[in-house]
Amino acid sequence: MRKHSILIAILVILAFSLGSLSLQNGYDLFQKALTKERAEGNLEEAIALYQKVMEVSKDESLAAKAQLRIGICYEKLGRKEAEKAYQKVVDNYPHQTHTVKLAKEKLSGLKEGRPVLSKESPDFSMRKVPTDIADGMGEISPDGRYLTHTDWNTGDLAVQDLKTGEKRHLTHKGSWQVSEAMAFHSRWSPDGKQIAFDWWDWSEPGFVGIRIVRPDGSNQRDLYRIEDQVERVSILYDWSPDGKNILASIWSDSGSGKIVLISVSNGSMQILKEFDSKRTRYNQINRMCFSPCGKYVIYDFPAEDSPNSNIYVLPIDEQTEIPLVEHPADDILLEWISDGNQVLFLSSRRDSLDLWRLPMDGGKAAGSPQLIMEGVGSISSQGYTKSGAFYYLTRKSAMNVFVASIDAGSGKVVEFPGIPIKHIGKSTHSPDYSADGKYLVYGAERGPAGNERTVICIRSLETGKERELYPEYNFQDFQWSPDNRYLLAVAWNKKDRTGHEFLAKIDAETGDFTQIFRCKKDRTKQSARIAIWSRDGKTIYHVFEERDNNKRSYRILARDLESGNVKELYRAPDKEHIMRVSLSRSPDGRWLAFVNEDEKKKRVINIISTSGEKSRRLYSFTDSVNWATPTEWTPEGKYVLFARSNSPENDPSYIGNRADLWRIPVDGGEPQNLDMTMFRFYQLSFHPEENYLSFSSLGPKEVKPELWMIENF
Prior knowledge:
Blueprint: H1 2-39, H2 43-56, H3 60-77, H4 81-92, H5 97-112, E1 125-129, E2 146-151, E3 156-161, E4 167-169, E5 182-188, E6 195-201, E7 207-213, E8 221-225, E9 231-239, E10 245-252, E11 256-263, E12 269-276, E13 288-290, E14 296-302, E15 309-315, E16 322-325, E17 331-336, E18 342-347, E19 354-361, E20 364-365, E21 370-373, E22 380-384, E23 390-393, E24 400-406, E25 413-415, E26 427-433, E27 439-446, E28 453-460, E29 466-469, E30 473-480, E31 486-493, E32 501-507, E33 513-518, E34 526-533, E35 539-548, E36 551-560, E37 566-571, E38 577-585, E39 591-597, E40 603-609, E41 615-621, E42 631-633, E43 639-645, E44 658-665, E45 672-679, E46 682-686, E47 692-697, E48 707-711
Antiparallel strand pairs: 1-48, 2-3, 3-4, 5-6, 6-7, 7-8, 9-10, 10-11, 11-12, 13-14, 14-15, 15-16, 17-18, 18-19, 19-20, 19-21, 22-23, 23-48, 24-25, 24-47, 26-27, 27-28, 28-29, 30-31, 31-32, 32-33, 34-35, 35-36, 36-37, 38-39, 39-40, 40-41, 42-43, 43-44, 44-45, 46-47
Helix pairs in contact: 1-2, 2-3, 3-4, 3-5, 4-5
């Protein structure tokens, strides 16, 4: 009898263990399936794994979720099986009320969100437009012949003839070494005879405002100039259909903004609406334009309790905002098409960014939103022509973390970084190796466009496994502490829309953090740039930037973490400009390397003692591009690495993203090109013991935005 009882107990324990193992296997498979679906985009393999989850798991809740994910994968693939998969959730798991609710919403969305047309529709037309200069700032001409853009090699307003490919400048400010002025948004007048454009110049005497020029570059004139010192930026959006007014927004340092009309004839301004700019995505309303009849203004703007945008209509005569598209998802305006009967917008309501249209009758919706194209991603409008053709740009290269193998002695690249490190999310950045060489930290940006959140990823170099920290803040420029316990980072609070930057000390185990220093003024006036630890971990060094109207000041500061005392190590003269992400510390802790621009606009690599008493130049060079120069010390401290564009000096025709990695001996000597070319370099980090260099980059090949046109939609 006793043996029989023991046998039964063993069988019960064994059954329980097998059940637990099955449950654990189900959860493991579910996580693998999520990785296949979200990180790798391998939807077919994800579906197979989700099906295995339902086979092995005894947890009905997990099985229901797996069935729901199968439907989502099929929907992303554009297959009819999605509807059957969602229906199985409803039929087979009635007690899983939350999952069933989601499945029913998906079923409803499929009926609402079936594309109203496809590439096979008889009148639908879609084609890629050959161009290599689209930057998202310009607009197609009313006849579809020309495209305006900013030439970022110089900052000039330029135009390309899409028929012949000819490019020409409409402004002629000179190189970045001559002037820091730049064109920003540009828009064609309805008759195609004039182009309005933002012109921003913070050098003396300075100009921030809107200008108008003819397509041949003649008759350039100021339309609007910001005179009030409280106001800081104006942003151009559209011409009125009658060509008499410009639609723009004005942003002030106080956190207020205004939607305004500016008269083309005399530059006078009419305020249509005031708004709280602290609610917006850092000085940006995604899109704003006139209705084709000219009676309404339409724009997207974040909801009161969410970073996601809704779309609103503002009657010009009544000036009372009317919600047009309200949804928990992110809805981003593209265009109000010229026939006046439809508004185009992007929406994330189906787990992807899709192109939708809303039928219109005057200033009101005339029906429910209709899905046009699935999975278009973060496209940006380039306007539409008189014939109704809509032009848009696809997404460009994303920033990601790469790892190269470089022999520290010879400088030879042993292993070239062909692909970024494997990750989840849209982009990665800010890599740094721990002092003991066991971990690599980096930031991953995840979430819908414009509302990404930073996830801190800590990867074990021994096992390849990762831990993730989910802060409620945006973080960048990570630096490990000497004892490997903390991370130093530049941060800002997403919930604090005033955007005050601060330096944070983050516990690498828990993600808890403390503020070391917080800027008193918002990011338009003060910035705390890349910060690094002293060798003993008792002090941090960082660049502090202040902007007051047209003047800027840059200082390198040392902050004692125990006493709170601050010492100024370097102050840039008025005519110098610190390349703000170039601070790095020597392995022995005695020196800091940074890059500035001298009075002749040459970039200078400097080293300064951590006491601030000694400094000297290592090397100077002329560079034609306007992005920053990162630096890093080799592990033995003999060289300073830096990135430099590989264009001929002052070559105005250079497309300014390609760069080479160089090193310069600290004790003197000529710089050496390490023969590793990437499209930009950011935050370099050398492994303390191995020959590994991690960095952020657009990659060995640059993916440029593509210009597309669709008609008859």
